[in-house]
Amino acid sequence: MGMHFQKILVVGAIVIGFLSTLVLLVGTLLKDSIPNVLTPQERQYAFDYVIVGAGTGGSTLTSLLAKHSNGTVLLIEAGGQFGLLSRIPLLTTFQQKGINDWSFLSVPQHYSSRGLIDRRQCLPRGKGLGGSANLNYMLHFEGYGADFDSWRDLHNLSDWSWAHMRSFMAAAKPKPAEMFEVPRGYSKLSEALDEAQAEFAHKDWVFRRSRYNIKNGLRHSVLQQFLNPVLHSSNLRLLPEALVKRIQLSPDRLPRATSILVGTKDEDNKEQEFSVEVRKELILCAGAYQTPQLLLASGIGERSILDKLGIPLQHHLPSVGQNLHDHFNLPLFVSMGATGATINQRTLLNPMTLINFLSSGTGPLGNFGVLGNVASHGGSSPFGITFFGAGAIDEASLMSISNFKGAAFRALFPRYYNASQEGFVVISSCLQPRSRGSVGLLNRHMRRNPLIDPNYLSREEDVACTIAAIRSAVKLVTSAAFASLHPRIHWPKLQECSNFGPFERDFSEQLPSDHYLECLLRHIGLGSHHPGGTCALGSVVDTQLRLQGVSNVRIVDASVLPRPVSGNPNSVVVAIALRAASWILKSELQAGPASDLK
Ligand SMILES: Cc1cc2nc3c(=O)[nH]c(=O)nc-3n(C[C@H](O)[C@H](O)[C@H](O)COP(=O)(O)OP(=O)(O)OC[C@H]3O[C@@H](n4cnc5c(N)ncnc54)[C@H](O)[C@@H]3O)c2cc1C
Fold it and tell me: Which positions bind FAD (predicted)?
């Protein structure tokens, strides 16, 4: 390459770098204003439906109620609007640890996370209109019918099965123009995956090319799909930047929620509190960590736990905050000897990357880089393998969002310093982990983070299941279909695992011992950000998602999932919210006319 051309490249890189920084900055700052905001003068008002949390569940439900209900609806959200940055798919991780992320950390993990600072996992959660659907990686999952049948069979939920949910899952699916599916021939990695499908046809493996909630190169979350179109509805008011702190129940034998206490910050950052009366229903959509937090802080939960915290009991309801589940991943870096369009600094600084994105929403910036996944749903330990087409990982940003210790990060990504490295990350996980954790409180102040203990890998079966996933991932990567990529799996050399491997033969035979793989998993495994189960169907809520023993509180978010979804959970939460809306609207029809918005 001539000197002159090199100079052009360097100048080009500086210009593109400058432009990207500008886009990041403007993207963070530029925000639409929110219409229909409840003004302080209106704060004495009561609402028929009060919805707490504008995330996946809350945005979807609000949309249906705003459109079809005769009642008045108030949507309360702790955060404000996300910046434009949230719309650019590849840059989504830059939002983590920012103002639209609750940035929770788990409590120190006993069975895992040994390579993480203080053994604590980062647990990002979206804060603002769209919630975690605006912070997530946008992967759309069509659902797996047997999951819902297992709710019916294993949890005695006769109203829940694939037959009940199929139409709601179909309605949760965005229109084709609102989705991006990784096309055939997108990159060498996606081609290899397509070829592997034929090579492994004898297995029960399901190959899926990634589908994203992306329209014209921009995130198209529940915010665009459901909430934005109804924001101007006359029966809807919004209360952003407001934290719901307490639920007040009536003292009846069958109590009902009468009001909630809301906290906002004034210009001097002083807390202002006021109540909102609930006329018909209170619907909690604050997510798998914060819905149980709000219930417990309100004195709704297990009596002995509340006693210990000194929180007056309003309603004894065991299991609030229990049964926390999440997927748990082992990432492995695979370098490629061939050049292909993997994400690295070279592809990002290529002027065509920005030009393609700005002109047509295509190229690396227009999706998150996960090109596809392979799942085995059969057997007692179903697993999934995800292919993330990133060759060079930025140390500072990944360490900040993963909490890795430096040594663990460098063992996992030994080529991290080579910004033009070609490669990909293969992520193995168990689709139905058995480990269960909990959400608890340090005290009842809602501005304090809840105590979140995912308790990853507390069940041995999860280790065995993930090891089976890793071994299948190795089969895929070393198959004939991948040969043209000249892949090399980088078995991490962790000092703490050195008694078990990796040994020379592990690199040549690709058959490291179970002990070594378990050691890796317990050191560098990471949570998937798919928490659920903390107000599970059948224990905390009844089959119509109503809080057990309380007449007018419903929960509509990931906390109701009795067991993990065998894939990405966002679409399942949307489908659950659509179903909840149908029940609410039906009972409204049965009950007759409602009040007008004052
Ligand atoms: C980084 C990341 C990547 C992910 N990737 C994917 C993916 O690719 N595909 C997929 O299907 N799923 C993915 N998920 C998971 C998916 O986004 C969640 O399962 C889903 O969004 C959960 O929806 P929810 O309604 O339960 O909660 P959320 O969407 O989290 O909504 C809860 C809302 O309630 C608000 N809130 C909380 N407490 C209060 C309070 N006291 N008062 C007022 N408001 C409150 C919050 O600010 C938030 O807006 C990912 C999640 C994360 C964090």
Answer: 244
* Residue 259 backbone dihedrals phi, psi, to 5 degrees: -155, 170
Which residues sit with their C-beta closer than 6 Å to ligand 1?
A: 52-58, 76-79, 124-127, 131-133, 135-139, 141, 243-244, 285-288, 290, 294, 446, 529-530, 557-558, 568-571, 573
Query: Residue 10 has which token pair?
Result: 């360097």
197 within some domain: no
Asked, for residue 68, whether it belongs to a domain, the answer is yes
Q: Which atom of ligand 1 is nearest to the CA of 245?
A: 41
Q: pTM value?
A: 0.94
Radius of gyration of the chain from Cα atoms? 24
Q: Give the Cβ contact number of residue 202 at 10 Å.
A: 6
Q: 10: domain range?
A: 1-30
Query: Looking at the domain assignment, is residue 573 inside a domain?
Result: yes
The number of the ligand 1 atom at minimal distance from the alpha carbon of 368 is 8
- Residues 23, 42, single domain; the answer is no
* pLDDT tens-digit map of 499-531: 998 998 888 888 899 999 999 999 999 999 999
Euclidean distance between CA atoms 404 and 362, whole angstroms: 32
Residue 349 lies in a domain: yes
244 is in an annotated binding site: yes
Can 155 be counted among the known catalytic residues? no
CA of 529 to the centre of ligand 1 (A): 9
pLDDT at 4 over 50: no
- Among 564, 53, 120, residue whose Cα is nearest residue 292: 53
